[in-house]
Each structure stands twice: as C-alpha cells, then as structure tokens.
Amino acid sequence: MRDSFSLRITKIIADRAGHRCSNPVCRRATSKAHPNDPELSVNLGIAAHITAASPNGPRYDQRLTTDERKSASNGIWVCTRCSKEIDSAESAYSVDLLRRWKKDIEVATARDTVEIEAGKLQAYEYQNVLQDAFEVIFSDQLFRKRSEVKVNEGRKRIDVVFSNESKHGFFLWIKK
Question: DSSP secondary-structure letter at 45?
C-alpha cells in the first residue's frame, strides 16, 4: 500500500517551496500559464516523498507511521525532471540532503516575501537577508559566519565573513 500525499498536503508542500524546485542547482519554476486556455495553468512540480511512500521505494523508513509518511514534513517540492533523477539515483540523494534542500527552499521563499524599505534603519534587515542567502547558496562550503556592522559618518557598512572550508567546487578552486 502506498502512503500518498493528500491534495491539501501537496498544496502545502508546493506553497512552502514557493512553487519552485527545491533542488538548489535547479530552482526551476513549477507552474506556468496554460498555452491555450487563460483559465488554466500547467503544473510542472511534484510533491515527492523524502522517505518512500511504500516499502520498495527509495529511502524507505519502516520506523515512520503511515501518518508520518503522508505528512508535509516528509515531502519535498521538485520539478518533474529532478523528481525522476532523485529517485533513479537514490544513493546520490540521501534523506539528510533532501531535508536540507527542503529547509533551504523554505528559508529562501520566506525571505522572498520580505519587503525591506530603503534607509539606514533597515540596514540590519539587509544584512540578515544577505547572510541567509549566502548560507542557503553555500551551506556546505562556508563556515564560522561572523557579522560586523560599522558606522561611518552615519552610514552603516555591512561585513559578513565566512571561513572557506570547501572540499569541492568553486570555493576549493578559489582556495588554490
């Protein structure tokens, strides 16, 4: 028996991801206007199970109850392409990795909805948005965040410093 998501849970998962693929390399929009009907839209996203909905599925966890398997906390919103890749190359996409993607897209979506007005009183808010963006984008490569705020003639300067401890990718290349 498959523990599928209800329509309500599917909507929650999609909404929390801002209808964007949770894969940080992709982030593709997962809905668009229908090409022929102005009253319709096309859904290109899937509420995928982080731990499988049935015993023979990828990353199945027998310790979860049926309700836990069908809950929004066990779902991640991805585009159809990434969904296929995640389940086909199961060993490359661990439960921990998918949970991190889910957290990261939800943080990014929450930040996207924040409107910060211009002015020096909002400088701390800008700093927080920038820090969150760096943490989401470079979460596995930059560590030991340190934030500094300096006042210079009534104007704030924001410094966000990370330590480069990358073992792969762009930041390893920079280190060399």
Answer: E
